[in-house]
Amino acid sequence: MTKAPFPVVPDQHRGQRAAITCKLAELFLRSKGWRVTGAVPGVERFIFVTGPHTSNWDFVYGLSAALAMNVDIHWLGKNTLFKQPLTRLMYWLGGISIDRSNPQGIAKQVAGKIREAGTMALIITPEGTRSKVGRLKTGFLRIASMSDTRLLITTIDYGDKVIHLGEVMIPSDNMDADIDHIQNLYAQVTPKNS
Question: pTM, whole model, 2 decimals?
């Protein structure tokens, strides 16, 4: 039995991208020596909690992996990214425009969009920046709790060139413990910039 080159995507999260788009993304990843391991969960809603996030290349490789797998992903971007001439491309790539002028309302705004969609796979980098941080931000935990959404802990390992779709978590009542657990998983891989 031949192993599938990428994790299989459950029907409810399969994208509608053209086969050529998926193949080009796959060829790009292979040409750079990257692979994707793990599994896409069959739950209705989940957040790819992706890290460590230290480089703009994280977006390139992560998006390429999503396109290669043909997963219908969404990601958050500041509203200034969604201006012409890139507006249609950003939405086609799964972007969700967020107004960051009111940071306290972002988690509620995103949780509402997830609930409205019913089925969604959302990518969030919990550092909130490409700079080294001492502690992850907690917004993704609040979003998950408010929208009854699972977390898929996803690591980007530049040492082994692997994007790993790891464990599926349900946020607990102890945010500090959840953050510590996720940071420990991120600490086991090599980021692009330390």
Answer: 0.89
Q: What is the mean pLDDT of each run of 10 residues along the chain (194 residues)?
A: 73 95 96 96 96 91 94 90 91 86 82 93 80 78 95 97 97 95 95 83
SS3 content of the chain, % helix, strand, coil (to 5): 40, 25, 40
Look at residue 191 and tell me if it is in a domain.
Answer: no
- Structural domain boundaries, residue 158: 11-186
- The total domain count for the chain is 1
Q: Which of 189, 131, 163 is nearest to 60 (CA)?
A: 163
Question: What's the start-to-end Cα distance of the chain, in Å?
Answer: 39
139-170 b/e (C-beta count within 10 Å ≥ 16 → b): bbbbbbbbbebbbbbbbbbbeeebbbbbebbe
